[in-house]
Amino acid sequence: MKFYFTNGVPSDNVTTCQITNVHTDTNTQSKETHMSMRKGDKLTTNEIDRLRTMFSQQRTNAVDLVTRLREERERQADFIADTRTLRMVPINDEMSAALPEIPQSERTQPVKPRVAIVPVNDQEEWYNAIGPVAANAHAHSQIGATLQIPRPYYQRMLEEQPDLLAHNVNTWFDKNPAQRMVRTMSTNGGGPKMAFARGFLSNKYRRLDAVDLADTIMPMFLDERSDWQVTQCGVTDLRVHIEARFPTIAGEVVVGDEVSLAVKITTSDVGAGALSIQFGVYRIVCTNLMTVPNFTKRQIHIGGSQSELVQVLSDRTLRAEDRLTMRKMKELVASMANHEQFNTILSTLRNAAEVKVEDPVAATELLTANLRLKDYENHEIQKALMADTSAPTIWSLGNALTSTARTFEFERKAELEAAAGTLMSNPKMWKQYAEAAA
Fewer beta carbons below 10 Å: N end or C end of the chain? Predict the structure, then answer.
């Protein structure tokens, strides 16, 4: 990880910056793309199959996760800059076609860069080190939010009029100057190589990186003397997810249907959410995870303003604080191997298994409406619920939701697992589904 600083304001002599700093790299590494689940998106069967194939690439195991995060750290660089020292410039179609695809957080975003960020003064340290910086969808959304440009309009300009987008962004960069932290990573595929912004953040953003979390928590999970077992890990361009279970704390919801205590640890390097630990249950028979939001612990990524002087003088102190935070999170995970907490949720799950669902189709339609699910998600949930040979209950409805989630993109998977946990842990919600009628 490299950190560069550019805190000056532009001089009277403005340098025109051209996108010429393009290199070749023979290494190849696929990058995951995941789609948004916004209401109104229409997907064909072929698109769903193709996306599911890509989504499977987000899954990894504990050892490979650490290896991957360490490799990515070598390609990452951050800098803090006054927005008046930055310029967004359009990339012409010929140049864009020659550049590598940028990891995206939404299916609808262009995969080839249409604009890049360069400095007003091309002698800036960060620019000499990494060159022009494109942006992924998440960084674009943060730029738009920072400048208060409505997202649909920002997206339309990016896709149809990148020159107009650059003009608008540059105008507001100058009109409302601010210190921003730009988190970048270089691409690592065949052909031209360039950096892309993965986050456009406040200079108060506190970097609690996923690789540090993994280096802290994985030794405990992988220790042969530990009862923890890592079940799955996930990496997207927004977050890193680590899922583990504690098999010695377990119980049956109904005869033959055992669940064990589980935790899900999630963190984001790019301002897409706090470092969090969620309590959950892991269903043995189908390896589904269900998280329970009521037991979530969070650590937000906000610190003091990181000016050049403060950062240089206190980086060692901040890193010591980060290590302390990570140790506390490790201790918190260890403390969640708690029989009392698990028995509380197990009792609720057993109650859910006794509440019959009169009309499974009507119940899933109501669930679709309440959670704003896609049509194909509703179809998959109905199919999973009908595949259960026992009489449908609130418990089996929740399982149908988590079973469907397991096959989806990791961010959506996490949302549906949390939705299932919310449903299971709130008996007041059960009646509407139990009595739903077509």
Answer: C
